Amino acid sequence: MTVAVITDSAAALPPALVAQHHVTVVPMWLGIGGEAELEGTRPLEELVVAERVTTSAPTPGEFEQAIKDCLRGSDGVLVLTIAGSMSATFQAALVAADAVGGPVRVLDTATAGGAEALVVLAAAQAATTGGAIDDVERAARHVIERVRLVATLPSLDHLVRSGRVPGLAGWAGNRLGINPLFEFRAGNVRRFRPALSRDAALDRLVALVRRSRVSGARLHVAALHALADEVAVELLARVTEHEDLATAFIGEFGPVMVVHTGPGLAGLAWWWEDPAET
Questions:
Q1: Secondary structure class of 154 (helix, strand, coil)
Q2: Is residue 57 classed as helix, strand or coil in its secondary structure?
Q3: Kindly report the CA angle at 256 between 228 and 109, in degrees rounded to 5?
């Protein structure tokens, strides 16, 4: 039995991994100055300076076409989406799956970015090794329960302009050199105590991964960035220096997150694979 895996572009899965694991990606939509275009049409550098950028989910019709295409060459389809708390993507995929019928399942990953990508890769690996659709879904759920995504920003400027924090809080944070840190998990954002410098923020990101280590486990990790690739390279090198790696890659945060946070966003997504659980 062969199972196809579909996700949305909010997973920001690098193209090489998309091709290697035969994942189908349905792009999100962006609204720029009132005009709609598919994510990936223009580089991130243009989006962070563009006026009035909004994001929206793929349509049910777009998911329906992707599902039908995948079913022509497989015995089942698993669709993995960005957290339903962030986007209507999950609901659009459900509508599409219901319209198509058959062996199609839709799963809310409850996360985004590199964490969503790690869920997708686990499902794709299970599919590649011949797993039935129950096995592929089980692999995805296993990672959803364990994966973490923690990120930091160099300032609150972009959030202030977007109206998501009071202007005074942003001004105070910038004057003090504060770097906010947050975790996105189980569909919710959790704020951590901010770091007093960029270096301190990166130290804490690396420490979070190491403190969560499971003895004898292998690490699946993604270093993520928004126009800060040198930071992602440093993070990945520091995290993986002494670890047994199962997955490690560098990727960009997608516009879905970056249009709200601005450039300079950097973070880590990870989960520990305990051989005793597999």
A1: coil
A2: coil
A3: 105
